[in-house]
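Section 5.1 Outputs to date
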Amino acid sequence: MAEARAVPLTQAPTEPRAQRVSTSFRRGLILVPPLALAVLEVFHPQPDETLAAVMDVATWFLAFHAIQLVLIGLVGLSVLLLADELGHARSWAVRLGLGVFLVFYSAYDAVAGIATGLALRTARDLPPAQQDGIWAAVRDWPGFDPVPFSINIVGTLGWVVALGALALAARRAGALRRQWIFIALAALFLMGGHPFPFGTLAFGSLFVAAVFVDRATHRRPSSARS
């Protein structure tokens, strides 16, 4: 009679490596952009409103808003993925508001930030009279010129609509209170503008909400998430 062989204990099924990488990448896209943008806003240039002061920081003003432009696009993706985690990615209000935010806020960033920084960096090498002319043309772009200001308002309202709709939908669906409250705070704080402190509070609140959603999602058993 042949000797019976020992049967190895069955190992618990493991998540395929490619799926783990995909999950980690998705989590990174949800968590990293809002955190990065919250930190970046701490370093937003806020010089005195004089020609000399703004020309001194013109290079950083240009670089800052170029970096912010990229992060704004990534934060839009973060919001969409967060909405998907909460089961509301197909909400028309979230999608429409997010689209308006990405288009108009990016346009505002390009005009009031990148163009202003580029113009004043170029003005350094010009005679004083020409510097004054450039300063007269661009000094109101970031806050008071009607066209950039209107673009800013529309972009901000898009953010408020998207995040507000997501917070309301999450609350109605029974999401944890801390999740939808921080999403709502992210909507409200950006109404104060993107430089520190309000920009940091807005994108920081979005990051905190994303952390709460991520912890609740990945605390579930794998079978519950599939």
